[in-house]
Structures are given as structure tokens and as C-alpha cells.
Amino acid sequence: MSEANKTIFRRFVDEVINRGDLGAVDELLAPSYHQHDPLIPGLPGGREGAKQLFALLHAGFPDLSVTLEDLVAEGERVAARSRWRGTHRGEFLGIRPTDQVIDFENLELVRIRQGQILKHWGLSRISSILQHLGSAQPT
């Protein structure tokens, strides 16, 4: 089960995050999917919130890519350490494009059941990245 769950998580990273295939969200996230620590407050929960999040990220960072550095699984749980990179070429959360490259590490834990991601917890430094982008706004 652990290896199969790692494959599901890799697919999510590759298809949804790296390629921007929002249609894959419905296949890879459970109907009752729950994001425990929303990256962007105010987005709806569940699959719809995930679609909106990744649409916003890809609009602001069209070359967004995630590299999995570590991936560990036990039973239903998969833990990942990843590196996120992208160039701020579109508006993101009201911040005009700065052409700055973001590069941050992310830690995540997901629970996968019956072939779909059911729950997600994460720690990232995106808030400091956003503060940096906001302070770098062109005049």
C-alpha cells in the first residue's frame, strides 16, 4: 500500500502542480478531501478550493515546478519534502508581476485512502515569499 500511495502523491505533484491539469484533481482528491492548513485563507474547502489554489498559483507563476526531494510512506500516510520554484510573471493575490524567482521548501503530510488523497497538512515558507514579492512591487 505504501508504494501505491507514493505513486498517487507523485501523480498529484506531476499532473496537478507541475502540468497544471486541474481535471486530475477530481481523480486524485477524495470527494471529502480536507486541507487542514489552507495556503490562501478564504478559498473554499475540498476539491474546489484545491482547483482554485492551483489555478491562482499557475496564473501568478506560469513556470511553477515542484521537485520531490524526499518521499516516505507508511500505511495511509505519505510525507514529502519538496522544493517549489517559479517566476512571478502574472498577478498573484493582488501583487503585480515582479519577474522574481521564488524558491522555497515545503513539508507535507497526506492521508490516502482507496486511491485518493483524503487529507493534507503542510508547512511552507510561502508567506515570507509573498511578503518579499509585495515589497518588490515595481513602481
TrEMBL record:
GO terms for biological process: polyketide metabolic process. This is Ester cyclase. Pfam families: SnoaL. InterPro entries: Cyclase_SnoaL-like, NTF2-like_dom_sf. It comes from the Bacteria.
